[in-house]
């Protein structure tokens, strides 16, 4: 259960006895509030006594609230309490969890106010370290269960929807390398390097030297070991530190999946780091990040349980905070939202196949929390609550910008690239 | 003269008598101020008496100030008075005018403060009409002298730097059509349609029906005549009106080169027009506009003499004003700055070849003003003072977005496209 099979569970046997609705005043008010909130979402809600609220038609899931308390909590703070209840096993979902969350997000987007709320939260170095540790130091064995073989934990690029996750992660790395027009001998700084796959890929296939930073001890250890094994130690240096500590100069600045953890209050600082790295009026860079079509915080449950300190910015927030102060011009933006939904579909399916193992490694609450996170993230990209942007930039008056961008994508089908 | 030949005029004969610097106190102060302002720009400045200030090495031009008054005016307000003096014939430039202005802009960018100055100016309908009339109703005969044969007055897309202007304008139209994935039978609204070439191109080659608005009487008359002659009247409707009057619904909203004339104070209104046109949660659009890497007004002389009411926005200003309030997500951004510099090089060369004709049609001041405008615009795109953005957008959760964007550029070499 809690998988994505819209199973027959949705239809009760025709001769079933229909349990009555709750009769207490508080419960009745809560049920009414829940009905108003959910509107005609394609979902049935089953209460602890078996009574079922039939909302929209063609339900994608049945949500069971296992206690009166859960109903009241959910009505009080649905954004947070759905996740809390699911994690604790107080809420069960039968049917298609991704489709359920997608429907909730799509309905929410329609209601959401369009007013702009400036967000300024920062992540000082110590907080940044704690945030990273919380998520990325869960153990490489855990991530190996459901990531691709090279352990890339960011949006892949699928040449076609049928591509394997492995091929799509390689295609993503090549796409970024081509957008950056890397050439042998150039120096690259990578901020937030995960388990090091991209830094090693750049060095091996594009002949560059790379300095890569990451705050995660587990990831850096793994990346260094890989560099040693693969004989790339001389060309790739992995540094366990905050991006703010970067002080090497380079031809290229690249960051894949770190900006979400920076926080808008530190964008100007990130801009200064980029400028210090590239020098005046030269170089180019690429920022790959989860963002939004309009400003707003990350989902509160995700911040609480999965990504403390994370914030998905709008393109405007990134330009104003990071790029404009140093007169960097945007050369190119590509939105890979559908590719992240596809990436998450792969991760989620692999994860589902390893649920028992995860339960043994951690506990049932952790296992359910991560299933909800992966499903919710997939739903976020499907519904457009989240977007994935790749932004290429260079100094506003750069004389070294490409005439056409065709070459970036032409060869990005992955596969045949040589060794440099 | 005033062309782009870095001629021998830059070197005086070796036995020339060197005229002395001016001796009046005011003149001496003004010369000092000019030296400070220009720094080591690669330019020589010749005063009315023949005395020459040698600034940087390898000068690209000699600027002659023909009177004491011109020197004082220039020092008082260089941004405005250089253009005023050039237009009036009080300033002459021998050498490469484009390279001179590019050097000035590059030096200025280095000095410019990076503080964000919010700009909110609006163009109410009557002002918008006057602004458009000022520029676009100068007579089709005038524009025919130096635009391509289809009279496209926006940035072209050069498949290669050697492409002709004619081929590049067709390639631009195809590039936009492919980014919009037009298919036969769809309805397109075009805001700001110039002489109608793009509307007619979409109808003829992509089988769509088009409603196109423009405030310029001369342009609309020309466009309607072309539609009649080419038998496309039933599929292309040209409307002489403000974009705010649009109330048709459509599958696609496109605007090439109008946003610069809208003014940030009216971006929200433009966003509402787009939303009204496309309806809720559907459709897609493209905005093609001259912009900036950081906020700032258009050059004051250009606003005064060439484009009253114009403002080149940053991408952030466009997102926040036009797109975010309606939850449109950016799917793609392409920066065509180098293509606009190339387009302007073609226009400027054609214009130079028709200077005598322009002088007869108007007067020498007008002719010089437009030479400076075309040269200055080319310099702006070369130096990065201006950028050219194409932004593709769709509702944040759109289910009809392409898997890959390769197809947009593949066929954009222009040339072989069939009739639909």
Describe the protein in words.
The structure is a homodimer of 420-residue chains. Chain A is an alpha/beta fold. The first copy, chain A, has two domains: 8-111, Nonspecific Lipid-transfer Protein, Chain A; 125-358 and 389-410, Vaccinia Virus protein VP39 (Rossmann fold), CATH 3.40.50. Chain A contains 16 helices and eleven strands. Chain A has helices at 25-38, 68-76, 78-88, 97-111, 125-136, 140-144, 165-180, 197-206, 217-229, 267-278, 300-305, 315-323, 337-353, 355-361, 364-383, 406-410; strands at residues 43-46, 52-54, 61-65, 91-95, 187-191, 209-214, 236-240, 252-256, 284-291, 328-335, 387-395. In chain A, the strands form two sheets. The first copy, chain A, has a seven-stranded mixed β-sheet with strand order 7-6-5-8-9-11-10, sandwiched between helices. In chain A, strands 2-1-3-4 form a four-stranded mixed β-sheet. Chain A is elongated and about 75 Å long. Residues 411-420 of chain A have low confidence and may be disordered. Strand 10 of chain A pairs antiparallel with strand 10 of chain B, so a sheet runs across the interface.
């Amino acid at each position: 259960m809690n998988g994505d099979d819209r199973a027959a569970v949705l239809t009760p046997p025709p001769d079933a006895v229909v349990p009555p609705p709750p009769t207490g005043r508080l419960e009745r008010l809560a049920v009414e509030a829940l009905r108003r909130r959910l509107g005609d979402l394609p979902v049935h809600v089953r209460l602890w006594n078996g009574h079922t609220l039939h909302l929209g038609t063609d339900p994608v899931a049945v949500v069971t609230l296992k206690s009166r308390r859960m109903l009241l909590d959910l009505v009080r703070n649905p954004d947070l309490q759905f996740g809390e209840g699911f994690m604790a096993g107080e809420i069960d979902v039968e049917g298609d969890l991704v489709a359920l969350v997608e429907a909730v997000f799509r309905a929410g987007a329609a209601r959401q106010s369009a007013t702009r709320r400036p967000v300024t939260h920062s992540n000082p170095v110590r907080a940044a370290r704690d945030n990273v540790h919380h998520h990325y130091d869960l153990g490489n064995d855990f991530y190996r269960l459901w990531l691709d073989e090279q352990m890339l934990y960011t949006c892949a690029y699928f040449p076609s929807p049928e591509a394997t996750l492995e091929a799509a992660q390689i295609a993503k790395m090549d796409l970024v390398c081509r957008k950056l027009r890397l050439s042998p001998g150039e120096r690259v700084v990578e901020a937030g390097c995960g388990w090091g796959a991209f830094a090693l890929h750049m060095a091996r296939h594009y002949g560059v030297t790379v300095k890569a930073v990451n705050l995660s001890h587990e990831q850096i250890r793994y990346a260094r070991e890989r560099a040693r094994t693969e004989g790339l130690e001389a060309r790739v240096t992995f540094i366990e530190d905050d991006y703010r500590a970067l002080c090497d100069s380079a031809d290229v600045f690249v960051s894949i999946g770190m900006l979400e953890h920076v926080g808008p209050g530190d964008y100007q600082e990130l801009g200064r780091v980029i400028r210090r790295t590239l020098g005046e009026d030269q170089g180019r860079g690429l920022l790959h990040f989860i963002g939004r079509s309009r400003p707003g915080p990350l989902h509160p449950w995700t911040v609480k349980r999965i990504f403390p300190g994370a914030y998905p910015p709008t393109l405007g927030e990134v330009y104003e905070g990071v790029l404009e102060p140093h007169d960097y011009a945007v050369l190119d933006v590509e939105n890979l939202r559908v590719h992240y939904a596809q990436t998450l579909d792969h991760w989620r399916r692999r994860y589902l196949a390893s649920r028992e193992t995860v339960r043994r490694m951690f506990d049932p609450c952790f296992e359910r929390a991560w299933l909800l996170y992966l499903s919710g993230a997939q739903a976020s990209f499907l519904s457009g609550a989240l977007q994935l942007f790749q932004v290429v930039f260079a100094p506003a008056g750069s004389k070294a910008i490409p005439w056409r961008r065709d070459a970036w994508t032409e060869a990005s089908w992955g596969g045949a690239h040589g060794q440099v």
